[in-house]
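Q: Could you fold this chain for me?
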Amino acid sequence: MDISSIRKDYSLKSLDINNVNKDPFQQFSAWFQEAIDSKVLEVNAMTLSTLGKDGFPNGRIVLLKDVDYGFVFFTNYSSEKGEELAACPKASLTFFWPELERQVRIMGRVEKVSDELSDEYYFSRPVGSQIGAWASPQSKKIGSREVLNEKQAEFEGLFQREKITRPPHWGGYRILPKRLEFWQGRPSRLHDRIMFEKNESGSWTISRLAP
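A: Sure. Below is the predicted structure, expressed as structure tokens.
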């Protein structure tokens, strides 16, 4: 297999600094809607990168669930990512939509969302997923799949007798961006890269980056 020969030339669209929305959230919303309209597979999938306790960056795919004044996802607070965010509440997100030859990178501080927002999303999930949040000791080593099956059965029985509640170790995080980069693939690897950086005043500076 000759991996070095794998390549694709991008030519679908362009991105001009004079045409982007001056509000990066509005620019993201426009691109996200285009991705939805283009039927991008797993359109809200994003790579969440955190800083591991060993100093190494650590990435995994999570799902975007809301955009307000930040980018919101939900998970187990006791998971590896949760422990890393507790130690270093900074993270980056990366979206890649190959059907549109686009990428978005976001960096910023992280905060937990309110209990009310976590409750609202938790109870909108299928019951099986609600129980799964109780059953899985996310990121912890387990002996076999049977451990999960037994825990699932245990909580299914419990919540047949009692009203289901949101686990205290499960909820949402919000990435508060300080920098966003919109990347549009172009021919000959001369891609368009437009970066938004947040100033101390809260306004945004827009720059073009070399590919």
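A (continued): Residues 145-161 form the longest helix (17 residues).
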